[in-house]
Amino acid sequence: MFHLVRYSIIWKVKNFNIFFWPFIFPIILGTLFYIAFGNVKEADFETIPAAVVEETKDSRVFLEFLEELQKNGTIQVERMEAREAEQALKEQKIEGILYAADTPYLKVNKNGLSQSVLQSILESYFDGKKTIENVMKNSPEKLGTALERMADHQNMVRQVSLGGSTTDGNASYFYALVATACLYGCFIGQGSARWLQANLSPLAARQCASSMNRTAMILTELLSSFLLHFLNVAVLLAYLRWVLGLDFQGRLPEMLLVILTGCVMGVSLGILVLSIGKWQEKIKIGIMLGITMTAGFLAGLMFAQMKYIVDQYAPVINRFNPAALIADAFYCINVYDDPSRYARDLLTLSVMSAAMLAVSVLVVRRVRYDSI
Amino acid sequence: MTVFRGYIKVIKSNRLMICFYLAIFFAFSILFQTTAKSADTEMYQMRGVRIGVINNDDGALAEALVRYLSGIHQITELDDEISVLQEKLYYRAADYIVRIPEDFYEKCISEGKELEVTMIPGSYTGIYVDQQINSFLNNAAVYQKAGFTEEETADAMKNRENVRVELADDKSVAGDNKDYIYYFRYMPYLYLAVFGFVLGDILWSFQKKELNRRMMASPVPLRRQKLEGMLCMSLFGVGIWVLLILGAAVCYGKSWTGSANVGYYILNTLALLFCTLSVAFLAGTISPNRDALTGIVNILSLGMCFLGGTFVSLDVMSGSIKKISQFLPVYWYEKANDILTDFSVMTETARNQVFQAVGIQIVFGAAFFCLAVTAARYKQTEG
User: Fold this and answer.
1) DSSP per residue, B283-310
2) Tens digits of per-residue pLDDT, A137-176?
3) What residues form DSSP beta bridges with A48?
4) What is the average pLDDT score of chain B?
5) Which residues of chain B does A25 touch, with a Cβ-Cβ cutoff of 8 Å?
6) Distance from the Cα of residue A101 to its chain's centroid
7) Whole-number pLDDT of residue B41
8) According to the model, what pLDDT value does residue A170 have?
9) Is the pLDDT of residue B152 over 90?
10) Are A111 and B39 in contact (CB < 8 Å)?
11) Confidence at residue A195, expressed as pLDDT on a 0 to 100 scale
């Protein structure tokens, strides 16, 4: 039977649709994802350019406060005349104008994070001022100690990890991509089912008229399809992990098990869709595309937070969405170690694949043709 | 107009696919528009961050800190369960997590222990919240040094002075809060996909050897055949463009039609139309078969849109990628679009930049068209 598997793989590789969609397309899409946002953890912090306009001669404290902030790289303040600053703001060369007036204030031209940071800086100036005023009012004898502590501005927060391997949300695009690639195995499954059903192509009719045992024929097709698609997705995984260096750094055997289960699922889906109903093949391909794209979309292929949104509002969908299950299994391996959730994902996928194959076999078994 | 009618017939056979892509386009525009935070253009608002707070202390200062943060941000109280927190942070349901320990005042203010927080590493928003919490804690420490008790500190920090923030009386600046941003941003994908598949299909139908020979032998001159074909394809393109412009007018009403930049939007989309029609013409001409056409169109449309700033905003793309993207027409369309978003009324510099971007798209379009004509000639000679 080995030579049959070999020949089956060879004809599949030579078929454009079977080769392009499950193998080439995910690699291209993965590369595009990587180029576009694979390296974007989040927009890097950049020093905020701002202007300071002196409206009063007595603005030494405020200017010193801004000088201090400049040292830690939060803002880059340039002293300007009012008109010059207005012009710079208009041309978006600066994010805001800080007016060193009796009561300092801020002028911005839009809502945004940089503008919010500038407001926050101004607020912290007022908070500090208010603190000193309160101390002067309530315990003036401690003013010296208070001023000393105020001058000694400390970092009082500490970043801690939650224990997971990554918090890079963009990784979920790639998990959804691998999941969708697994489901693209339906095109291989469709090719196999086409090859086995005499009413679908002259070659299949020739094949069915041969003396070969039908069970061996079905097993050959299943084995070659699973194997070929497993290799397809394994290459994709290797490419994402080693060539692009993405967050697929978890345990490899567990990831291979996920893609094996996912590939079986994808191929089974293709066999099922082609086996049931008497619609035209074009329509069946449309159905498969529809299922894979919808599953991929709900798993976060086009919008990373989609899987989380579905989990929040309609969790039952993702309990049975094969792409979400595969993506979730990758999350369990690479982001936050959760063996029970991982096992549940794989079990659900296996049961669904077995059910699809069983239905397909029930539909196509003992089919006889009086004429074609 | 026999050839023209033939082209129309092929377009009609693709109507389902055209509707499919139009539906995707409208669905995505609406989805992203509704998920994007909308802000009032007339009022300045401080940016809020989604903060998850795990409060293990019931002291006055812990309460003051939560109140302080909730005055600026969206606060959600969370249980201290790591798997849930990890998932919230990973899927950006929370941008920042603050863990207030038991005996917060003693530990963090009196003993000077740092407050544990978790944010998305290196994020801009995280640094912004860090700065606010630091400011709060440092002020609390000043009160503590001055002999204030926890309750007195919390009480003193309750009354904060309002900061005066003015929104520049400058109507040229608009900000990223217009409804139709996503509508115009995703337009290149719709153009490339629809024109790529439909025009590719037309070209393929008419490139069949038998049909081609039959047409060569017909009394209708070749030049007229080509002109009728071009007319049909151009009309189809203009039809889709009109549909989209009407769509924008209907969906966004006066906020778009009444904006001072509406003319620039029309100009930019027209330049893109010409360019994408040329790309589709080229793709249809060089494809060796229908299956390959699907592959080529998918790669071209997704590739150009990913690299050109359609799916991922140009702002978050790295400098080196942007340098490569400049060789794609979609980049220039999105660049012009970004300028139109930033400026409600164009300054001279901004206007020149938009004209430059439109010009570059037209040059790209002309180059693709010439390539396609050359490829078509070559193919015809071969045939």
Assistant:
1) HHHH-SSHHHHHHHHHHHHHHHHHHHTS
2) 998 999 999 999 988 888 899 888 776 566 677 788 899 9
3) A75
4) 86
5) 295, 298
6) 48
7) 41
8) 79
9) yes
10) yes
11) 81
Q: Which residue in the set B92, B115, B307 is minimally distant from A156, CB to CB?
A: B115
Total Cβ atoms within 10 A of residue A127: 20
Model confidence at B278, in pLDDT bands (50, 70, 90)? very high
Determine whether the interchain pair B90/A33 forms a contact, defined as Cβ–Cβ distance below 8 Å: no
- Residue positions counted in chain A: 372
Which residues in chain A touch residue B47, judged by CB atoms under 8 angstroms apart? 111-113, 115-116
For residue A201, count other CB atoms closer than 10 A to its CB: 13
**What is the rounded CA–CA span in Å between residue B284 and residue B201?**
7
Question: CB of B220 within 8 Å of any CB in chain A?
Answer: no
Which residue, among B280, B291, B17, has the nearest Cα to A286 in the 3D structure? Answer: B17
Q: Give the closest-approach CA distance of A163 to chain B in angstroms.
A: 8
* CA Rg value for chain B: 29
Q: Assess whether pLDDT exceeds 60 at residue B38.
A: no
Residue type, B302: L
Alpha carbon distance A296, A319 (integer Å): 14
Q: Which of B204, B240, B180, B237 is nearest to B365 (CA)?
A: B237
Closest CB from B138, B174, B306 relative to A153: B138
Please tell me which of the candidates B44, B120, B292 has its beta carbon nearest to residue A111.
B44
| B contacts of A117 (beta carbons < 8 Å) | 128, 131
More confidently predicted of A312 and A38: A312
Q: Which residue has the higher pLDDT, B234 or B21?
A: B234
pLDDT at A356 over 60: yes
Q: Are residues B28 and A302, on separate chains, in Cβ contact within 8 Å?
A: yes
Contact: A126, B90; criterion CB under 8 Å: no
Cβ-in-10-Å burial (0-12, 13-18, 19+) of B315 comes to exposed
pLDDT of residue B293: 87
Compute CA distances A145 → B141, B144, B150, B348, whole Å.
Answer: 11, 10, 18, 55
Chain-chain contact of B175 with A164 (C-beta, under 8 angstroms): no
Task: Please count the other Cβ atoms lying within 10 Å of the Cβ belonging to residue A209.
Answer: 11
Computed on alpha carbons and rounded to an integer, the radius of gyration of chain A in Å comes to 31
Chain A positions touching B314 (Cβ under 8 A) are none
Lowest mean pLDDT among A52-56, A63-67, A327-331, A333-337: A333-337
- Which residues in chain A are closer than 8 Å to B114, comparing Cβ atoms? 155-158
Q: How far, in Å, CA of B132 to CA of B119, rounded? A: 14
